[in-house]
Inverse folding.
């Protein structure tokens, strides 16, 4: 008896839709991704045919940090991205080049979130809690990155000067990981699935949780060019519709665990093409599943968190003092809270 998986059915359904309109009518788009599990919704949406259902043909463009992705979207080299707010993103929004259109990864009380980590050397030297980080070297990708923001929020709540943290820009996540494991930096904060792999090695120790320092943190956002928002609203809506179906599958597979083992295994296979692809699938599978954080249903956006982040960027003179929420965010596409 012929067995058709849900994925195969979705792809066949998408193909049927395209056959009715002509496959050549599919609109090509480029979507920026980082090699992180939190970028899985786009990968799932492509693998399950959700973009095809919307008449979109996706090409993924890999990045190693958030800032370059924002620049690529502003220039039109990439159409959509899903990553953290950065100084570069805000500055580009202020110039009328990009817009946040939705929310993605979210710190929520019921789900294990980002971890604060220290190197083995730092731990052995007495860094046991985030309060011990004053005077230590804290790894970030770039100035104005989400890692920079998290570091300062930790300092603020622990009551020591932000300047007491020695921030070490390393440009890309793999470089930060290598520096933490070797002891070239003392501390870093990162999503739980990466944190779990590092602490398991015995070279890195967990000393705290980011959620204890930032309430309701909207870790990543969905964004596109201001030109798309102003002149191609239908494209933005189609992208968000497909992405939202990918988000629902991601949460069902890894966060709520309501998806069947067979279907979640199929989803892991899709993600493995882009995340932990240097490992065999059987080794990558537990790493992909471990420590997944919730991604907001239907790309709902926590505007209070975005505003808090914007005010921090302004307080550090990382963005223009006149930078505003109006120029940064378009709230007309998704529900906000």
């Amino acid at each position: 008896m012929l067995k058709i998986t849900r994925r195969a059915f979705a792809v066949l359904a998408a193909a049927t839709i395209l056959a009715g309109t002509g496959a050549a009518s599919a609109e090509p788009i480029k979507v920026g991704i980082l090699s992180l599990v939190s970028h899985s919704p786009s990968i799932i949406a492509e693998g399950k045919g959700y973009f095809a259902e919307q008449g979109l043909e996706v090409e993924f463009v890999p990045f190693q940090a958030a800032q370059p992705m924002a620049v690529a979207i502003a220039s039109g080299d990439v159409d959509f991205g899903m990553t953290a707010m950065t100084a570069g993103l805000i500055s580009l929004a202020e110039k009328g080049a990009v817009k946040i259109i939705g929310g993605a990864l979210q710190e929520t009380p019921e789900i294990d979130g980002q971890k604060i980590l220290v190197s083995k050397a730092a731990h052995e030297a007495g860094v046991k809690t985030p309060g011990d980080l004053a005077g230590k070297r804290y790894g970030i990708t770039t100035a104005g990155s989400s890692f920079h923001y998290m570091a300062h929020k930790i300092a603020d709540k622990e009551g020591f000067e932000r300047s007491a943290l020695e921030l070490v820009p390393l440009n890309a996540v793999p470089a930060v990981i290598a520096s933490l494991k070797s002891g070239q930096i003392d501390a870093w904060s990162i999503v739980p699935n990466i944190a779990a792999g590092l602490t398991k090695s015995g070279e890195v120790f967990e000393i705290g949780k980011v959620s204890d320092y930032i309430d309701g943190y909207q870790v990543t956002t969905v964004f596109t060019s201001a030109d798309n928002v102003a002149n191609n609203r239908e494209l933005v809506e189609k992208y968000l519709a497909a992405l939202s179906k990918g988000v629902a599958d991601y949460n069902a597979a890894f966060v709520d665990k309501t998806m069947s083992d067979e279907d979640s295994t199929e989803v892991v296979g899709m993600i493995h093409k882009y995340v932990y692809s240097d490992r065999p699938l059987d080794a990558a599978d537990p790493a992909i599943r471990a420590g997944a954080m919730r991604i907001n249903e239907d790309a709902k956006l926590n505007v209070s968190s975005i505003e808090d982040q914007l005010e921090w960027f302004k307080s550090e003179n990382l963005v223009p003092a006149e930078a505003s929420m109006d120029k940064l965010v378009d709230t007309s596409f998704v529900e906000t809270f």
Notes: Residues 17-23 have pLDDT under 50 and may be disordered. The chain has two domains: 6-106+218-328, 115-212. The chain is about 45% helix and 15% strand. The beta strands are 27-34, 56-63, 80-83, 98-103, 115-119, 137-140, 166-169, 187-190, 204-209, 221-225.
